[in-house]
Amino acid sequence: MSESDEGKQFGYIMELIEKGKVTIKNIERELICPACKELFTHPLILPCQHSICHKCVKEILFFTVEDSFTDAGSESSNQSSPRIRIHSPSMDRIERVARSGWKRNSLTPRTTIFPCPGCRHDIDLGERGINGLFRNFTLETIVERYRQAARAATAIMCDLCKPPPQESTKSCMDCSASYCNECFKIHHPWGTVKAQHEYVGPTTNFRPKILMCPEHEMERVNMYCEICRRPVCHLCKLGGSHANHKVTTMSSAYKTLKEKLSKDIDYLISKESQVKGQISELSLLMKETQCNGERAKEEASHNFDKLFDVLQERRSSALRAIDASKNLRLEKLQTQIEEYQGLLENNGLVGYAQEVLKETDQSCFVQTAKQLHVRIQKATESLKSFRPAAQASFEDFVLDTTKQEETLGDLSFYSSGLDVPEINEEQSRMYNKALISWEQPGKAELADTYILEYRKLNREEENAMWQETEVCNKSKVISDLDNNSSYAFRVRGYKGSICSPWSREVILHTPPASVYSFLFDDKCGYNQERLVLNAKRNSVESRAGFPLLLGAERIQVGCYMTLDYIIGDTGITKGKHFWAFRVESYSYLVKVGVASSAKIQEWFHNPRDVTSPRYEQDSGHDSGSEDTCFESSQPFTLVTLGMKKFFIPKAPTAPKDSANRILPMPSCVGICLDYDKGKVGFYDADHMKCLYERQVDCSGTMYPAFALMGSAGIHLEEAITAKYLEYPDDV
């Protein structure tokens, strides 16, 4: 049974159950929530068509942590983890969850996302969150039948009987209550409206008779959206989120899906002998896996034993060397002590010399005293220059095991058949979040899973800990990164118990401030004759058009096109914010920056069809106006881009040579506005490098401002969000 069709197959399964073709106990595996591993309770259908308990969704959205998400269903995979290093159980942690709804006037986009426990793909619940999900009543009914089959001896009691209650004989779906025969007759008298209520056998599962739209709560669903794979109402189609989607009638969708599901189930049933054969093959594989696993354990244990033997031998050798040095030093020191003890009166050498002095025979005295005097002189010299015969320090015997510890820490099952993955720097990008994409080069086998590690590069903390997350595909979105920071990323692949080496580290820089979200304003001053907005309002292009040709025909000495202004639809009144955009390479002239609401009104209420290039404050011509305006803080700042160049505005202290003020135009341009400090900066957003910065008067509401002249195009950088699972087109 295909997991992607799970939500649509239960209706047909219900019919099979009713016909007695399916034993309820045989489908228990399909009735278990992948998150809590218990029978479903009020299951909800996710956009990926998997179901999950209502309480499980709420619990998942309650937790927000940075580590990778692994639901309870991954417990078995954790037991066979290919990594040697031991980490805290990842199944107790849930990956990045951003809670909230969307507000048009908010400075940053806020979404409600979480990974599906069934397929691990990120699910975006949108504005309505849990309220936008359908309740899977069909699955709920099957679970209730399973519960009844499991507790056949447990009776459902009447809800209306006086104590003690009687065993119920039927349940009313309209009243959502269970009755015994007597109570049912009392509360559903013959000839009344209640007598027409729908009743079934005793049950605790009461489902509504009509499925209502979660977005329009008073409307019943009567159509099926083929794009989103979900039922919708007529309001969703008329003006809602499904306005431009292809829909079909509910009866047509029911017939089509039921025919496909019936055909697929009939096909599976016809292949019963093949399935049984494959089950036998899998059973043999289980036994072989068991044997091979034990053999691999023995081999790994043997290899570790060899390492232990090497370590033990090196340990014994090192300890013997230390003992030998210790004994030699102790022996020297003991000898020196004995020599110095001989220098004491009536002891050793001094006592012997005192006895020699008592000799009265001159020849005998001279014979003995000569050698004794030499010894006495040596003892005297050693006394004057005292030096221990051995050092007590053993600093030469300290082992440096740093490299060995790193080597043992990376010890794993390497295979020449699994290539090193490569992080694709062109597809990877950093904006409000980090999107890391990688590829598996070569013709080697693809990895089953990947481990992506990242860490913040901090000068104060050189050896920052790596954070890791497990990924099933070849891309990952990382959130909760610090602003104005650099992060290193690396990835390795795993296939079973085999892993590849780490990829080359890639360093990405986060924006200098939180990403500010806005769209182009299509109302305030928008010139629809010369500017073209796309449907999403995140891209604008300018077109000269026929009126410009007519204007040029009337001018004999020359014609200059006007700047067509367009602004963001939300303003900034505090804080520090960053946004990025891309300027088309064919653009003739584009001005970008910030402007106050008063300055914008001045621009829009004083239109000029033909203008001299000396009129504009930052036109790129040496008119002299730039110098005078630059000295004081203005309520706007614009820089010029065009013809694949970035023009730094002219300053009084800047060199006269204009070539030094012209830079190659970045593929992605960023603007950072610090409202509180009255400062605006222009960045190469691909490398988060500041190209130009200056003061700006932020006394009023500031808006992102853009101006286009001639043929030009601007595209706002889209925020990095969780990607939906791509569903098959034939569903």
TrEMBL record:
<dbReference type="GO" id="GO:0007340">
    <property type="term" value="P:acrosome reaction"/>
</dbReference>
<dbReference type="GO" id="GO:0007051">
    <property type="term" value="P:spindle organization"/>
</dbReference>
<dbReference type="InterPro" id="IPR013320">
    <property type="entry name" value="ConA-like_dom_sf"/>
</dbReference>
<feature type="domain" description="B30.2/SPRY">
    <location>
        <begin position="498"/>
        <end position="729"/>
    </location>
</feature>
<dbReference type="InterPro" id="IPR001841">
    <property type="entry name" value="Znf_RING"/>
</dbReference>
<dbReference type="GO" id="GO:0005886">
    <property type="term" value="C:plasma membrane"/>
</dbReference>
<dbReference type="InterPro" id="IPR003649">
    <property type="entry name" value="Bbox_C"/>
</dbReference>
<keyword id="KW-0206">Cytoskeleton</keyword>
<feature type="domain" description="COS">
    <location>
        <begin position="357"/>
        <end position="414"/>
    </location>
</feature>
<keyword id="KW-0863">Zinc-finger</keyword>
<dbReference type="Pfam" id="PF22586">
    <property type="entry name" value="ANCHR-like_BBOX"/>
</dbReference>
<keyword id="KW-0677">Repeat</keyword>
<dbReference type="InterPro" id="IPR017907">
    <property type="entry name" value="Znf_RING_CS"/>
</dbReference>
<feature type="domain" description="Fibronectin type-III">
    <location>
        <begin position="420"/>
        <end position="513"/>
    </location>
</feature>
<keyword id="KW-0175">Coiled coil</keyword>
<dbReference type="GO" id="GO:0043014">
    <property type="term" value="F:alpha-tubulin binding"/>
</dbReference>
<dbReference type="GO" id="GO:0005829">
    <property type="term" value="C:cytosol"/>
</dbReference>
<protein>
    <submittedName>
        <fullName>Tripartite motif containing 36</fullName>
    </submittedName>
</protein>
<dbReference type="InterPro" id="IPR036116">
    <property type="entry name" value="FN3_sf"/>
</dbReference>
<dbReference type="GO" id="GO:0001669">
    <property type="term" value="C:acrosomal vesicle"/>
</dbReference>
<dbReference type="GO" id="GO:0051726">
    <property type="term" value="P:regulation of cell cycle"/>
</dbReference>
<dbReference type="GO" id="GO:0004842">
    <property type="term" value="F:ubiquitin-protein transferase activity"/>
</dbReference>
<dbReference type="InterPro" id="IPR027370">
    <property type="entry name" value="Znf-RING_euk"/>
</dbReference>
<keyword id="KW-0833">Ubl conjugation pathway</keyword>
<keyword id="KW-0862">Zinc</keyword>
<dbReference type="InterPro" id="IPR047066">
    <property type="entry name" value="TRIM36_Bbox1_Zfn"/>
</dbReference>
<dbReference type="InterPro" id="IPR003961">
    <property type="entry name" value="FN3_dom"/>
</dbReference>
<dbReference type="InterPro" id="IPR040859">
    <property type="entry name" value="Midline-1_COS"/>
</dbReference>
<dbReference type="InterPro" id="IPR027726">
    <property type="entry name" value="Trim36_HC-RING"/>
</dbReference>
<dbReference type="GO" id="GO:0005874">
    <property type="term" value="C:microtubule"/>
</dbReference>
<dbReference type="GO" id="GO:0008270">
    <property type="term" value="F:zinc ion binding"/>
</dbReference>
<dbReference type="InterPro" id="IPR017903">
    <property type="entry name" value="COS_domain"/>
</dbReference>
<keyword id="KW-0808">Transferase</keyword>
<dbReference type="InterPro" id="IPR043136">
    <property type="entry name" value="B30.2/SPRY_sf"/>
</dbReference>
<dbReference type="InterPro" id="IPR035727">
    <property type="entry name" value="SPRY/PRY_TRIM36"/>
</dbReference>
<comment type="similarity">
    <text>Belongs to the TRIM/RBCC family.</text>
</comment>
<dbReference type="Pfam" id="PF00643">
    <property type="entry name" value="zf-B_box"/>
</dbReference>
<dbReference type="InterPro" id="IPR050617">
    <property type="entry name" value="E3_ligase_FN3/SPRY"/>
</dbReference>
<dbReference type="Pfam" id="PF13445">
    <property type="entry name" value="zf-RING_UBOX"/>
</dbReference>
<dbReference type="InterPro" id="IPR000315">
    <property type="entry name" value="Znf_B-box"/>
</dbReference>
<keyword id="KW-0493">Microtubule</keyword>
<dbReference type="InterPro" id="IPR047065">
    <property type="entry name" value="TRIM36_Bbox2_Zfn"/>
</dbReference>
